[in-house]
Amino acid sequence: MSGVEYLINLFCCSVSTFGAVLDMVTDRISTACLLVILSQVYRPGMVFLSLLALDIGSHWLQMYSTFLLGKASHKDVKDSTNWLFKAYYGNRMFMAYCCVGCEVLYISLFLLVQNETEKLMDVLKASITEGSLVSVLVVLSLFGWAIKQLVNIIQMKTAADVCVLHDINKKERP
Amino acid sequence: MLPDTAGTAVSVSFLHLEHKDIKLNLISTYETVADCKPTKKLVSWAIRRFQAKIQAIIIRIRSKPSRSLQHIRIPRHAEDAAADEAPFKKIPTMHVLGIKNFDPQLVWLGPVISATSVLSQKASPMANNKMSRPRKPGRLSVYLYIPNIIGYTRVFMNCYAFAICFSNKWLFCALYFISFVCDGVDGWCARKFNQVSTFGAVLDMVTDRISTACLLVILSQVYRPGMVFLSLLALDIASHWLQMYSTFLLGKVSHKDVKDSTNWLFKAYYGNRMFMAYCCVACEVLYITLFLLAQNDSEKLMDVLKSSITEGSPISVLVGLSVFGWAIKQLVNVIQMKTAADICVLHDINRKERP
């Protein structure tokens, strides 16, 4: 849906702050709820709880640091030196693949659930050896998911640095 | 100044010699001994000793003003330029020293100071990169502030607590409650030790949100219907996210500074810190208590609530007391979401008005 919103924004040329915030909040809540459901059906549930924590924590810190730096969007990371950042944010197709891959992985894992509780590693192994459409989707999207989580972690560290430097610079300028 | 042990920085000296209209700025280089090779270390130490002697001489001269200096006026622009530039230059400019007009006692200082500065720069290459300003606190020192260390402890405590939440309920509740108490303690520590930092505030907020979210996730697993707790999770995240966004747009320091709000509930909630504390604590206490009350793998929420109210145990009393505070907090969350959304929209409208 957020792709459709992006297209609508493109054509209607009306970008509103409220729209951007609504977009971001809806993204976070929908991913969070999906992870909640996955943590209910898969064991160990801590995996999905940690992914939820990482998702919320990294996006929260990113937003905070974006505000502190005064950038328009956290996707404008032109001055970053990290090669992964440049690859991720520089190439919109790659970024789109990673985000979509993440969501596709979660949805596929949910579709693969047969019983009330599943062991995550068993399901993953079975999906790699199987040949069904859903399992192919899982394998294709694992790489994108991994990249996205890695970028989340690095972004959290970068955003924390921005907060700290903001304080240090504020102290210098009396 | 004796050389410090390797790795420590030598102190900066910034001497102002003010005598009537003359300012003599002496800036010595700022170097780290660890960056030099042994022979260069020795050389730079010797130079610093020499500079120390020069500074001692200047202090002596300063204490007995010379009559010949009273008639000397440095042109305004030169003095201002010197005052502006001098802190950022390693070699004092010659026009500041005013070689030709100075008292004979000070004439020899100019070339000597320049020479020693050049020599010490050559001896320690790293000196060029360091400015003669007081060292600013490093990033690591902010990360190691006491309140931030308390924050990290909270994070680890929460991680461990959620890992053992189903095997040891009481330990989980104890750890969660301690982490919640530390939330208030680290704010108090930050103010007491003057270690308030943006990073600390963000860490605090993020830890709060994640721990509440994880607790609601667990409650949604054990209680039916799970959607109730999922909606509470959504409301919590959305309202705090929007609040933070609107706080930034308004340029306020904290989303708790809502002095200009007209809503009576806001005034009551944010105006009275005790009431706000009661509501926040009641919310967490209700969630923990509901978790403790769950005996089976899945419980019906309404049944548990009804039985806890009719029972007389201390836990059910806690539930009864905290439901009111929880309700007020959720109501405030909803209103805050609406207010924050209004702020976002108004921000856009105002921005369009001002071209």
UniProtKB/TrEMBL annotation, chain A:
Intracellular or extracellular location(s): Membrane
Keywords: Lipid biosynthesis, Lipid metabolism, Membrane, Phospholipid biosynthesis, Phospholipid metabolism, Transferase, Transmembrane, Transmembrane helix
Source organism superkingdom: Eukaryota
Top enzyme category: transferase
Main location: membrane
UniProt EC number: 2.7.8.11
TM helices/strands, residue ranges: 6-25, 94-114, 126-147
InterPro entries documented for this protein: CDP-OH_PTrfase_TM_dom (IPR043130), CDP_diag_ino_3_P_euk (IPR014387)
Membrane topology: Multi-pass membrane protein
Reaction(s) catalysed by this chain's protein: a CDP-1,2-diacyl-sn-glycerol + myo-inositol = a 1,2-diacyl-sn-glycero-3-phospho-(1D-myo-inositol) + CMP + H(+)
Homology family: Belongs to the CDP-alcohol phosphatidyltransferase class-I family.
Protein name stated in the entry: CDP-diacylglycerol--inositol 3-phosphatidyltransferase
TrEMBL record, chain B:
Cited InterPro entries: CDP-OH_P_trans, CDP-OH_PTrfase_TM_dom, CDP_ALCOHOL_P_TRANSF_CS
Membrane topology type: Multi-pass membrane protein
Residues annotated as transmembrane: 169-189, 274-294, 314-332
Protein's cellular compartments: Membrane
Main location: membrane
Keywords: Lipid metabolism, Membrane, Phospholipid metabolism, Transferase, Transmembrane, Transmembrane helix
Coiled coil: none
UniProt record similarity statement: Belongs to the CDP-alcohol phosphatidyltransferase class-I family.
Name the record gives this protein: CDP-diacylglycerol--inositol 3-phosphatidyltransferase
Species of provenance: Salix suchowensis
High-level lineage: Eukaryota, Viridiplantae, Streptophyta, Embryophyta, Tracheophyta
